[in-house]
Each structure stands twice: as C-alpha cells, then as structure tokens.
Amino acid sequence: MQSNREYFCLEPANFRLDGGAMFGIIPKPLWNKVHPSDEQNRIDLALRLLLIREDNRIILIDTGIGDFNDEKFNSRFDVRGNLKPLTAALKVLGLTPDDVTDLILSHLHFDHAGGIGEMVDGEMKPIFKNALCHVHTQHYEYAHNSSERDAGSFHCQNFDPVIDWYRDQGKMIWHKGNEGVIIDLADNPIKFKCSHGHTPFLMHPYDDKFIYLADLIPTSNHVHIPWVMGYDINPGVTTKDKREFLDFIIEKDLKIIYEHDPKFWGGQVEMTPRGPKTKAGFPQEEPLAYKIEL
C-alpha cells in the first residue's frame, strides 16, 4: 500500500430503524441483548462514510441521509444531525465539499445517497461539484424499476437531478458487472465486488486494507450468517453473499467498515469451526470525523 494513503470516518448523523426489520427472522430476545431498541422498537444506527486521502485525490464513499427531509420523515427515523452535515464533517479534516475529487455510491437507498444534494430554492443541487460520481449502471437501472416491496427505499426524485447534473457535466462514471476497478490508483486501486441479496448490484469498494460492506453487513452483529435484514430483497441470496464475502475478507485479511454500527467503526473477522465471527472491533471515536488506521 502506498504510504501516503490516509483513511477517515465521517459521522454526519445518526438515525433509527425498526429492530425487527434490521434483524429479520432473528427473535427479539436475541438481537435486543446486543442492540437494544427504544420504546418504538427502533434501534440506533450510524450513518458512517469513508473518506480516503491520497496525493491530490479525496475519495468519499456514500453520503448519508441529507438534511432536506421534512419533519415527518425526520421524526419517523429519528434523524439526528446538523444542517449541512457533510460540510461540517469535512471541516473537521480541513476540507470542503469542493475538495472531493471522487464520490462513490455503494447503492442508491435514501440513507446512502441522500447526501449527494442539497435543496436550493426548491431544487436539488449537487454538493460535490468538483467530483466524479461513481455509480453501478445495473443498480441505477434497478433503482428506477424496483419492486413494490423496496420502491420506498429509492428516493429518485432527490438523487436524479444530481445524477443528471453529473451526466451533463461529463462527470458520471458508470460501472458494470460483478467486480472491477473503480479508481485505478497505481499501486493500490480502489476495486469493487457486488452483492445482490440486499439490493441488486450493491457495489462494495475495497483496497488491500479495507472493504466497505454497506448494507450487506451493516453492523458488527450482522457478521453472523443467519442475521440478515428483513429489508433485503432476497434474504436467501444475502446469506450466500455473506459467506462469499467473509471468505474473501478473511483470505485477504481486510478490515470491515461498518456503515451503520453505532459503536464500532470497523472490525476484523476470523473463521472458526462454527463459522465466521468477529475477531476484533474498533470503537467509534470522535464525533463528525476522525482518522483511522488500517
């Protein structure tokens, strides 16, 4: 790995989702021990992004939920964050949105792609105007032709104007297939592998140190193979995806970035006779933004 590559976690906001939905068929007496719910059965979740700084590249993976949603939405999901949350988080690192050179979206659910834009005079405008925007073509197509079961997760009215802007500016980079290279940095490219159980062609960025699993393994408690979200479009496929990815992670000795774990920014896993399990967890650090060692 190039010695000048640095990694940072951004923590622009927290929110809550139903605990039963987050753990699927796992009984509440089991998951509530490790991830307690509130009086509405919701569990606390992070919106954790990864920023990579290397030479003249500032690479941001995912964008969180945004700050433009109405009070009903924010109350339902208990969204807790400041106005312009990404600007505030980047400021901690001495950066601004204009410094971001590459924006990678793992997938287009509202809590991952919501922060790509801001509402200006009733219109959605891009926040990262100098960035190239990386999106998986087949996932983008699915987002506009999703099932009735998961259509509510895709707020196309919010991200489409921004993606259209990137396209018009010649700044959209479309990716295809189950794996490939996102950014071809000379000694250590940012690559991707796709999973399909949560949503088709969910793109997982990785290099030789980390992998960003987004909603395939959203928290450290989801390392257990059967602990699969009820939100997944195809939970049976998710179990196969998890086995494949965890074998890959152990083989490559990668650290996992947990996008939604409120306590741990990441962890390592190991294989045991009973299957994969967490070997080490890395606690969340400073609010908003902090450097991590991989």
From TrEMBL:
SUPFAM superfamilies cross-referenced by the UniProt entry: Metallo-hydrolase/oxidoreductase
One Gene Ontology molecular-function label: metal ion binding
SMART domains: Lactamase_B (SM00849)
InterPro entries: MBL_superfamily_lactonases (IPR051013), Metallo-B-lactamas (IPR001279), RibonucZ/Hydroxyglut_hydro (IPR036866)
Keyword annotations from UniProtKB, A to Z: Hydrolase, Metal-binding, Zinc
Domain Metallo-beta-lactamase: 46-260
Family to which the UniProt record says this protein belongs: Belongs to the metallo-beta-lactamase superfamily.
Protein name, UniProt field: Metallo-beta-lactamase domain-containing protein
